[in-house]
Amino acid sequence: MTLEDFRNWSRRIADWSATYLDGLRDRPVRAQTAPGEVFDALPATPPEDATSMETIFADFERLVPDAMTHWQHPRFFAYFPANAAPASMLAEQLVTTMAAQCMLWQTSPAATEMETRMIDWLRQAVGLPEGWRGVIQDSASSATLSAVMTMRERALDWRGIRSGLAGEAAPRIYASAQTHSSVDKACWVAGIGQDNLVKIATDSDYGMDPAALRAAIAADRAAGHLPAGVVLCVGGTAIGASDPVAAILAIAQEEGLYTHIDAAWAGSAMICPELRHIWAGAERADSIVFNPHKWLGAQFDCSVQFLKDPTDQLKSLTLRPDYLETPGMEDAVNYSEWTIPLGRRFRALKLWFLIRAYGLEGLRTRIRNHIAWSNEACEAIRARPGLQIVTEPRFSLFSFACTAGDEATADLLERINTDGRTYLTQTRHDGRYVIRFQVGQFDCTRGDVMEAVGVIGELAGG
Ligand SMILES: *Cc1c(COP(=O)(O)O)cnc(C)c1O
After folding, report:
1. For residues 329 and 332, what is the distance between their CA atoms, to the nearest angstrom?
2. Tell me: the pLDDT tens digits for 45-97?
3. Where in the chain is the domain with CATH 3.90.1150.10?
4. Whole-model pTM above 0.90?
5. Is the CB of 262 inside a 6 Å radius of any atom of ligand 1?
6. d(CA 214, CA 59)
7. CATH domain 101-345 topology
8. Which phi and psi (to 5°) does residue 222 adopt?
9. Atom of ligand 1 nearest to the CA of 179
10. Dihedral sign, CA of 394, 375, 455, 408?
């Protein structure tokens, strides 16, 4: 491909992108594709000879868009959002073009220094005290794994990274049952094991019960285990539950345990000062993760891990072989030393574009609208005969079910998602099958939310 071809194709693809985004409301939200359709449409063997871009692009248009679930669709109310505000998409196009490997300061100074500045902008935006640092990771799962590694190594006085875990007391991690499965996986990968992730009972509001945490730590010490850390949940995935942050952190601190708050979704909402009471006391944690790629609008992937003091995490994860030394710059910040993967993308640029293009106030307005519309949708569904609210709105997430029971609820969900005008997903809550409804897509309007409510009512009958 010549650079002239590249220029022309970049323009065509930019046009296609705007047309795609503009037409999303006319597409079904969830892919209406049968399993195997795309696989079968692709040749079984790779081409030996070059194919023209014209043909490649025509095949893309023929095979791909209709077989996608459209995460930027304004009537996407499933899972949590993966918002890509258009300004952040533009930053990603530039990053893709420079295609730098941002592992060390020297390999891309702008990426490193902008990352430091963006972390500090976001620290101020969510109201954390001065002095907190941080790093941008690919996903909350990676940030949580980094924190769990730090919990493990701190408890073992950094013997684990040298000698392994054989012969050591079992490091124990505490979390509630509302905590995301990424905590379980972090314990698997860190060699801690599922059995050493202690799920603490929750109170009537589905937050971790402080007395139960205290009792579990005491029982573990008596049994010769090694309490290492607590993972707290703010805005859990199933129903948006939060732990009582200040009470749990106080116990963890008394016990000398490292703490990590998983606010992957709800952390974005902390740019609104009136919502910060939900994580009051968070500044006493050691580590906090939130995903600007969820609710804030930074194109996936972009997960921010704040650290009160990075020293323990750096001691747990820094490796500096000769070939990664930067002679004369031993003190430079090399963010790959803060995380598990060595290679890193330039993720700070999309935050820079996003925060400047909308302003914090523009981003806050979106989140406040989403919460208000979610409350409105909840009341409209509550008023429908045959439907009931199971969990009340937390941030912008609530859940509902058919009064007729689980089977009727699952049928309704399938009808909604086959219809295509909106997209919702399910969870189990207290043994019941429920439909989650979260409002958070960057460009959705009140009209989109109310249209989804109308679809639910229409398909539920009654
Ligand atoms: C989405 C989510 C995660 C996982 O985030 P990834 O970035 O996909 O790894 C973890 N915890 C909570 C509460 C989440 O909402």
Report:
1. 5
2. 999 999 999 999 999 999 999 999 999 999 999 999 999 999 999 999 999 99
3. 360-460
4. yes
5. yes
6. 59
7. Aspartate Aminotransferase; domain 2 (3.40.640)
8. -60, -30
9. 13
10. positive
